Amino acid sequence: MPETLASGLRSAGWLAGLPALALIWASATLYAAPRIAEGLEAEGAAVASGTATATGEPWLRLEASGRDLVAAGEAPDVAERATVLSRLAALDGPRRIVSEVGIVETAAPFQWAAIRTGPNRIALEGSRPVEIGRRALEARITGALHPGTGLDDTARAARGAPPDFASAAAFLAARLSGLAKGGRAALSDTVLSLSGEALDVPAYEALRAALSDPPEGFSIGRIEILPPKVAAYRFAVEKSGRGVVLDGFTPSAADREAALRAATEAAAGGAVEDRLLAARGLDPAIDPKGLIAFAFKLAELIQSGRVVFQDGAVSVTGDAIDGQALPDAEALMRDGRPAGVAAGPVALTARPLSPYRVAIRRTADSVLLTGHLPDTATRERVLAALRPRLFREPVIDRTRLADGAPPDLGDALAAAAPLVANLADGTVTVSDRALTLTGESLYREGAARTPDRLAEALPPGWTGQATVTARDAAERRDPATCRADFTAALAGTDLRFPAGGAVLTPAFYPTLDALAALAKTCPSLRIAVSGPADPAKPTPTPAAGPAATGEGAPAAAPTQIASAAKPEPPKGDTPKTETPKGETPKGDTPKGDTPKTRGKPDHAKTEAGKAEAAKKDARKEPAAHGKASAKKPAEAPEEPPPDLPRLRAQAVVEYLLQAGARPEQVMAGPDGPAGPVVFALLP
């Protein structure tokens, strides 16, 4: 041995042998430790096999840790656990027994979870049914996972599991295949929940579809699945004559629903095709709902074309709805973009409208005009035809001006506007020279007359179709309830006619409408209407003087007599007849305002005519008896027609009949005294 090497060994001394000793120890450990562990587990195998349950699997699980033996599992009871631990302690091989043995208990609620801890690893925790063996349950779950996925099962046996637990556990485990690391599928009694991030768009859609069909007996609880993130986020609205197509992505289900609602409104009865997928990737500075609303504002300006958000910018291409839409789109793109959205190109072409469309929509709250009109004069004409027939409902005008309308469009709309305004709910739609009226009337008679009225009102060359139904309530056969409702409908009412008149005022309508509706639901109801007379007028006191007192009166007031008498006209002059107060001179037409109401019967004019005729007859009576009207004092009040109570009762009866009451249900009763109209129930 060289002197240098020998000198080095002498200097290191015994330290030179440590690496060799370490190598020898490691080799012995690697070789001997597994054999020792196998020996320890083999010694305890007989004890473990003796704990087999009805499932065929032993509840005791043994694992060697060095020279120690670790016992785990859930014993049926305390006594069983003590017996097994004492048998293990009697073994010769183990240095000591480490007990992790628990007792089977009832879990309430029964909870179990599967968690993705890695690409090919699933951890199980919580409680598992004591009735199902561990290996049997693991085999069921592994079969629902991708091949090669391992399980780390720390779930403990417990009582109280829901029926068919294994099916629910396998269903949840299968959903983890579409989630990234950290995804969690859990069960709490019969409620299933899922959370995590989807691996990709197909996985997200598959999860949505699967969660719509849970195992029988189980329900879906809390779902918190994040859509996947995409590099190229886009959103598109395509509009055509067939409808609207949605394409691209939305960050959440709520945003998708918002897009679908907007598309349904934009389609205006056309088809809506949903190609949207859930995905993240939109700039956090952009509000997704604001982006969707902006896209549909642009879509309102095109007949056909596309609105696309891509690479952070919105663009619009296609055919504009009219010439006005081109500057509108430019202004909207310039001033209406949401924060974070850039302006893309606006490539729109104005084409003639074909077909030319306009619509009037009547609801209980408002009247809405949409579509196109040729000019402002036509617009004002349509509005003028609607507004006088509405009480409080606003008219919302959203029409636009465009060329290409039929020359008599204004005539057709002016004729149809009163018809739709008198409906409870309805729509007039015009497409070129075809007009369609649909809706619901408050009264059967009004619904039946509408088609004929529309056909008479349309200009030549137009085609019209009216489909109007009556809003009739279900019949009630209980007479007692009907009578009680009749009394309630009249409670607190005080329906009075104007002095000398037999025309209904708007104050009558709510009460008469309620009575007509009640008559339609109560066929056995029979109502008598008594019209009131006018109050008696006081008799004027005669003026004092010789003309009043006769002979023997004092001649002390000649001045008063002279001032009260009218001077006689000179001979040869024709005396002028003064028109009594309240009368209209012959040849003049009295002006009167008819109450403007929605859906009210038009019998008011008929009754006004009857009352006016009666007044004229009353004025003709003095002439028939040879009395000169010129000698009638100007201050003499106009006398009401003698049958005024009957005329008033007939006006009320006619209204009720037109409002839907049957002829056999309403009749005129005996004339009533001065005061309000009287309604009586007949047996």
Automatic annotation (TrEMBL):
In which residue ranges is the amino acid composition biased (Low complexity)?
544-566
Residue ranges, annotated region (Disordered): 531-645
Q: What is this protein called?
A: GETHR pentapeptide repeat-containing protein
Task: Give the residues annotated as coiled coil.
Answer: none
For this protein, the record's InterPro entries field holds: OmpA-like_sf (IPR036737)
Sequence ranges of Basic and acidic residues compositional bias? 568-624
